[in-house]
Design goal:
This protein is an alpha/beta fold and about 325 residues long. Helix content is about 40%, strand content about 15%. The two termini are about 20 Å apart.
């Protein structure tokens, strides 16, 4: 039996670029040296897309991920039965796409809970298609949290050796600033510390990004650092958490890339997204921690406008697959 981790790769919305980027990413032979990839999706759709793209790699239906061989030049598929999938049309929002994407995610979660796979990598889904299908959770994180019964998932961005957590994400800038409280930041630092320890970091070095220019420069540019951020950091330090900050947001991410911090806590969506995506837009990977299983994902959408046309860039999917193997290896090495 192979000692490589088995990683389930969900196909995403079948009408989007998910099938394409999965097929193309799995042409990379070096991936198979690190892991055993198993695609969770619709075999018939994968065959249609492969025919359009001229991909001749054999697609083999399997029933048990732990029996997968993980051999380069063969793509092993767990074929999820979805009624009406043969009617799927590329590049369109449609209920069948939402139903299928939901079915793939549900099955991946079941496999994880059965310990049949070691991590999940997800291709993009469409909120509009999920809504058309009547799926209540219209985001990967919410769906995974529900199906895996994990109420406090954490989003982490990975770009090279830089790892970024977010105190808040999908809020307006005004709302995001109001959201920052000492209690929330302290709680976040505890969650981040625990998540990083679960990944194998014994005493993770955490940097907290400042909110104001130059970390307010002693109160000249706002008082959030003095009144909220510094007290939260000091309380976290008193609990034994190895955290520093607040550090100016124009410096802390670069310092993380240099290795000074194992991760950075970003205070709002764009603060961390800009840092990661400016460094490497295509290879920025989103990971979800705080679940019973590790999950990584591409950080882009379904790109319906170019679906099934051979134009989608597979680099983010390749990076997400490799990131899952990297994180699992680090975790096992440090247990």
């Amino acid at each position: 039996m192979s000692t490589r981790p088995v990683i389930g790769i969900t196909m995403g919305d079948p009408a989007g670029i998910g099938p394409e980027i999965v097929l193309v990413a799995l042409q990379r032979r070096d991936i198979y040296k690190r892991l055993v990839p198993v695609v969770i999706g619709s075999l018939s759709v994968l065959k249609r897309v492969a025919d359009i793209l001229g991909i001749r790699t054999p697609l083999l239906a399997i029933s048990d991920p732990r029996s997968a061989q993980g051999i380069p030049g063969m793509i092993e598929v767990l074929d999820v039965v979805v009624e009406g999938i043969q009617e799927i049309e590329p590049g369109k929002v449609q209920a069948i796409g939402g139903r299928a994407a939901d079915a793939y995610i549900r099955y991946a979660c079941e496999l994880a809970l059965w310990q049949k796979i070691d991590a999940i990598v997800t291709a993009p889904i469409s909120k509009e298609s999920l809504r058309a299908a009547g799926v209540e959770g219209i985001g990967h994180t919410e769906m995974l949290a529900d199906y895996l019964d994990a109420p406090n998932p954490l989003t982490m961005f990975i770009t090279e050796n830089m790892k970024i957590f977010f105190l808040s994400r999908h809020l307006s800038l005004r709302e995001a600033i109001d959201y920052i409280t000492e209690e929330r930041l302290l709680n976040m630092l505890q969650l981040v510390n625990n998540a990083m320890r679960e990944l194998g970091f014994e005493s993770p070095r955490i940097g907290v990004a400042a909110l104001n220019p130059h970390a307010s420069d002693g109160g000249q540019f706002g008082n959030e650092e003095e009144k909220i951020l510094i007290p939260a950091v000091k309380k976290a330090q008193a609990k034994g958490i190895n955290v520093q900050g607040p550090v100016g947001a124009d410096s802390v991410f670069h310092q993380a890339l240099e290795g000074r911090y194992d991760c950075v806590v970003s205070l709002y969506h764009d603060q961390g997204h800009i840092a990661a995506k400016t460094r490497d837009f295509y290879r920025t990977v989103s990971a979800t921690l705080g679940l019973p299983v590790l999950r990584t994902s591409v950080d882009h959408g379904t790109a319906f406008d170019i679906a099934w046309q051979g134009r989608a860039n597979p680099v983010s999917m390749e990076a997400a697959i490799i990131a899952a193997a990297d994180l699992l290896e680090h975790q096992r090495r440090n247990l």
